[in-house]
């Protein structure tokens, strides 16, 4: 095996599909022994609010519940479960400090275990990673 | 997510122990060998029977 691979993921949107997909990549990478860093910025920050339940985008939002049921059938956990799974697996979760100020989100509104950092802090981490993903 | 369950299970096992995994996901044919390669565990064998794929994985580390 090569040395530990590192992954950086930026999440800038809060729709159901983007949130779930980002978590699936993160959880899969962590299961493969990779070190994962996720930066939630702009609307992506909403995904880190306590009890977040993202909806499908646009008019599809009405079908979110149906989609969640389909996911359960295929064995894909819901967003909240996946976020907990990621924490359990040691995925590093970061909330963007600038976005928090911009959208008036307080530290207490953010899920436990998330670290608050700025763009420079995250870029410093991302600079030392092998793979970088932008989900937005 | 089966791959996460696999990782969790392997963590609870001793080095040298083997695990049998059955999947009905055609994607597992690529995913399981990739997972083994990445994590440094050994894929001892793989069998395809109908829509089921059976893998034998030996924990190496």
Helix content of chain B: 25-40%
Q: What summary fits the major beta sheet of chain A?
A: 5 strands, parallel
How many DSSP helices of chain A? 5
Estimate the mean pLDDT confidence of chain B: 95
* SSE order of chain B: HEHEE
Question: Within the CATH hierarchy, at the fold level, what is the topology of chain A?
Answer: Hypothetical Protein Ychn, Chain: A
- Tell me what portion of residues of chain A adopts beta-strand conformation: 15-25%
Radius of gyration of chain A: 15 Å
CATH homologous superfamily annotation of chain B: TusA-like domain
How is this structure best described in words?
Chain A has a single domain, classed as 3-Layer(aba) Sandwich (Hypothetical Protein Ychn, Chain: A). Chain A contains five helices and five strands; from the N terminus they run E-H-E-H-H-E-H-E-H-E. In chain A, helix 4 links the parallel strand 3 and strand 4. Chain A is globular. Chain B has 61 residues and is α+β, with helices and mostly antiparallel strands. Chain B has a single domain, classed as Translation Initiation Factor IF3 (2-Layer Sandwich). Chain B is built from two helices and three strands; from the N terminus they run αβαββ. Chain B has a three-stranded antiparallel β-sheet, with helices on one face.
């Amino acid at each position: 095996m090569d040395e530990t691979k590192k992954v950086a993921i930026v999440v800038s949107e809060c729709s159901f599909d983007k949130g779930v997909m980002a978590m699936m990549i993160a959880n899969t990478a962590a299961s493969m022994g990779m070190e994962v860093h996720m930066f939630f910025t702009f609307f992506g920050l909403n995904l880190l609010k306590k009890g977040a339940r993202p909806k499908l985008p646009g008019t599809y939002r009405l079908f979110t519940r149906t989609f969640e049921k389909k996911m359960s059938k295929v064995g894909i956990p819901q967003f909240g479960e996946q976020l907990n799974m990621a924490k359990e697996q040691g995925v590093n979760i970061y909330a963007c400090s600038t976005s928090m100020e911009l959208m008036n989100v307080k530290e207490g509104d953010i899920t436990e275990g998330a670290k608050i950092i700025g763009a420079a802090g995250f870029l410093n981490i991302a600079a030392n990673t092998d793979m970088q993903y932008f989900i937005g | 997510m089966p791959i996460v369950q696999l990782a969790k299970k392997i963590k609870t096992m001793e080095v040298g122990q083997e695990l049998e995994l059955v999947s009905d996901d055609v994607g597992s044919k690529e995913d399981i060998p990739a997972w083994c390669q990445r994590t440094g565990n050994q894929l001892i064998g793989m069998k395809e029977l109908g829509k089921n794929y059976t893998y034998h994985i030996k924990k190496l580390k």
